[in-house]
Design brief:
The protein is mainly alpha-helical. Helices cover about 55% and strands about 10% of the residues. The radius of gyration is 18 Å and the shape is elongated.
Length: about 160
């Protein structure tokens, strides 16, 4: 974040969520003097409203089940920058529905930030693609309809 802020001084990073990394994040924020640039918002129950305020969604997770947060960002129409773990690849295809970077690689995350700033129009196109994909694959009505069709076919083939 420090390298990014040096080039884009009006940028901020807001981190939503609470967990075991909070103390480490607080120390890093102080160490790199990013108190004015990185804000730890903690656990929130207004995430959809918050997402509407942001330019992009960054998800550098190392370990994750299927991510509801990632899909929420896709539904919100935000460009997505995410680590390339398998679970994220279930929702994001690099340079089609988002930007994937190497998990745990600080330079790769930094490059993702710069890529976004240098390619905002294209990132918004990827976000539109992601939004369409999210509606098709992850909207509950569509999932329920597909499951109902699956059960219907299973019953027919059983008889």
């Amino acid at each position: 974040m420090q390298n990014f802020v040096d080039k884009y001084p009006y940028s901020e990073l807001h981190i939503i969520g609470e967990g075991v990394m909070r103390e480490k994040l607080e120390r890093a924020i102080k160490e790199y003097e990013l108190e004015e640039k990185v804000v730890l918002l903690g656990a929130r129950n207004d995430v959809p409203a918050l997402l509407a305020l942001y330019d992009c969604f960054v998800f550098p997770t190392h370990v994750e089940g299927f991510s509801g947060a990632l899909v929420e960002a896709m539904f919100a129409g935000l460009p997505v920058l995410a680590s390339d773990i398998h679970q994220n690849k279930e929702a994001v295809t690099h340079m089609e529905t988002g930007y994937l970077f190497e998990v745990g690689n600080v330079d790769a995350i930094t490059n993702a930030f710069f890529w976004f700033r240098d390619n905002e129009a294209f990132a918004k196109t990827l976000a539109k693609n992601a939004n369409t994909l999210a509606k098709d694959r992850f909207e509950l009505d569509n999932i329920a309809r597909e499951f109902e069709q699956y059960l219907h076919n299973a019953i027919i083939h059983q008889n």
